[in-house]
Amino acid sequence: MRAGTAPNGQPRRTALYEAILRLENLDDCIRFFEDLCAVTELRTLEQRYDVASCLLEGKVYSEIRKETGASSATVSRVNRMLNYGTGAVADSVRLDLSRKAESSDTDSEGSEQG
């Protein structure tokens, strides 16, 4: 699927995605999405991203449900997306996990030297 084409083959409206790319920092991004989305929509997106992170860390459904508050249906939906989606979310989560591990390694090395 090309960036300019929706899953149904119709032309995709890209103005929203272009606006997101123009955001300069985390605070701008949070403010943009708070204006654009209802609180429940944002929490749903955030929860799905957290679930994806847990799944890629190898956690089991019961642990994920307890940690994120997500329903088993949501965990299953996110798992399906990770396995059969475009891979964009999985790539982003893996990058976050890699950076988190590197930061953790750096923090522990600093405390060992102290």
How would the blueprint of this fold be written?
Blueprint: H1 15-22, H2 26-36, H3 39-56, H4 61-68, H5 72-84, H6 88-113
Helix pairs in contact: 3-4, 3-5, 3-6
Structure summarized in a few sentences:
This protein is mostly helical and 114 residues long.
Give a written overview of the molecule.
- This protein is 74% helix and 0% strand.
- It contains six helices and no strands.
- It is globular, with a radius of gyration of 17 Å.
- The termini are far apart.
- The model has no long low-confidence stretch (mean pLDDT 91).
Q: pLDDT average, as an integer?
A: 91
Distance between the termini: 51 Å
Uncertain stretches: none
**Class of secondary structure makeup:** mainly alpha
Please report the total strand number as a whole number. Answer: 0
* Beta-strand proportion: under 5%
Helix content: over 70%
Based on Cα principal axes, name the global outline: globular
Rg is 17 Å
**Count the helices. How many?**
6
Q: Give, in order, the helices and strands.
A: HHHHHH
Largest sheet: none
